Write the structure tokens for this entry.
Amino acid sequence: MEEEKKTTIFPKGDQLSSEWFTGEAFLFPLVTKDKNNEFSAGAVTFEMGARTNWHTHPRGQVLIVIEGSGFYQEKGKSARAIKKGDVVNIPENVEHWHGASAKTSMTHIAITNFEEDTQVTWLKPVTDEEFNEVTNQK
Ligand code: MN
């Protein structure tokens, strides 16, 4: 059986804080906010089982999945399974999380707009119960 091919476009970067992420997640920054760009962009890698806390973005966010598969879920809605090549356009001020599945890792580019100096408001962790309910649907 052919081994699953892994393309690594960017380095994994530095591990993200357990204050806002569950499990092992990493960020490799690509673009920082400057006089022309009212956003930042970075490649975020979630190892199996890793995910963001629930959170909102004041001006929305775009995710482009470049490796693996995982989930995107808005509060009160069914989770959306996402995989390499998928694009998620997240509206402003909508509570949501994104991350890997229980059995796969996932890397997405995140393009996140700023409102003044704020691009995210972090909320509670996605509990194991919430996460398992999603990953066991699929
Ligand atoms: Mn987000």
Notes: The longest helix spans residues 128-135. The pocket of manganese (II) ion is lined by residues 55, 57, 61, 90, 96, 98 (CB under 6 Å).
